[in-house]
Amino acid sequence: MADDDAPSDSSLLVIVVDTNPNQRYITEDPKLLTGCLDAMIAFANSHLMQKSSNLLAVIGCHFHKSEFLYPSPGKPLDVRQIDGQYELFTLVEKTIKMRLVNLIKSQPQDDKPGESLLAGALAMGLCFISRMRREAAPGIRMSSRILIVTGSSDTAAQYINYMNVFFTAQKQQVLIDVCSLDKHLSLLQQGCDITGGLYLKVPSLEGLLQYLLWVFLPDASERGQLVLPGRGRVDYRAACFCHRELLTIGYVCSVCLSVFCKFSPICTTCHTVFKTGGPLPIKPKKKKMKV
Ligand SMILES: [Zn+2]
Ligand SMILES: [Zn+2]
Question: Could you tell me which InterPro entries the record lists for this protein (predicted)?
């Protein structure tokens, strides 16, 4: 074992699990959610098993709110040892399942499920990480990462929130890993690229646990020594601030860097007025074309 892998090091893993009922794999077969959840819990326990100082948090992300599934606020559940299973693993599994049931029960019945609030759940994860770092005993080096497990498609509606979270994570040296269960997620892939995390679209849900253990279990320091899926090409298109649509070419405010799909003489974000000098030329001089 290398010297830098001292026993005082710990690794904090925050898993954001998308529990939105309108994910395609759940609407096609609701039983699949249980399977994916079991794989996620087995993966979470594997992380705890690697080192006794490792820490775990699980956040359930729904369409009406996001909530911590583990650790539960307040007093932890009272668990007894089952068949020689380590109590902590039983506690993790029982707490996650119980709190997930509560989260699903609390969803508004008359509302149509909307988009999963992933950006908000990520922000909760970052807050948790910064609190754990603050409370850690002196001398302990804590590496932190967030893993998103989702079958939702990404829309540009949360574009600004995503970018704020990604750049905060980058500054805090938190890796963002994304495990997509269904579609290719270009915005979240940008987050992986910005923070140095890994992005993987799982080819089949049956092998989910295998993919989680292979790709996402190793810590950032161990990943360099392993053969893991490559980055691929990252789609770095930005979404316009007016319609939240992904653009290849747009107008950028020279003051606040807001992106717009159409020219407007006043920036709607910072209210800067641009002098156009007579009738508006076809190519505005004050604006730069962004590729
Ligand atoms: Zn627009
Ligand atoms: Zn502006």
Answer: TFIIH_Tfb4/GTF2H3, vWFA_dom_sf
Do 131 and 251 share a structural domain?
no
> 246 CA distance to ligand 2 centroid (A)?
18
Quick: pLDDT tens for 87-127.
Answer: 888 889 989 999 999 988 888 887 788 888 999 999 999 99
232 domain-assigned: no
SS in 3 state form for 202-266? Answer: CCCHHHHHHHHHHHHCCCHHHHCCCCCCCCCCCCCCEECCCCCCEECCEEECCCCCCEECCCCCE
Asked, for residue 4, whether it belongs to a domain, the answer is: no
If pLDDT is split at 50, 70 and 90, which confidence band does 1 have?
Answer: very low
Lowest mean pLDDT among 65-79, 82-96, 200-214, 275-289: 275-289
The CATH number assigned to the domain holding 23 equals 3.40.50.410
Assess if residue 3 is contained within a domain.
no
Q: How many domains does the chain have?
A: 2
Overall pTM surpassing 0.70 (yes/no): yes
Residue 162 alpha carbon to ligand 1 centre in Å: 17
Beta strand pairing call for 199-201 and 174-180: parallel
Expressed as residue numbers, the domain containing 285 is 237-291
Which ligand number lies closest to the CA of residue 250?
1
241 shares a domain with 97? no
CA of 57 to the centre of ligand 1 (A): 37
Is the same domain home to 147 and 92? yes
Ligand nearest to the Cα of 287, by number = 2
Whether the Cβ atoms of residue 188 and residue 178 lie closer than 8 Å to each other: yes
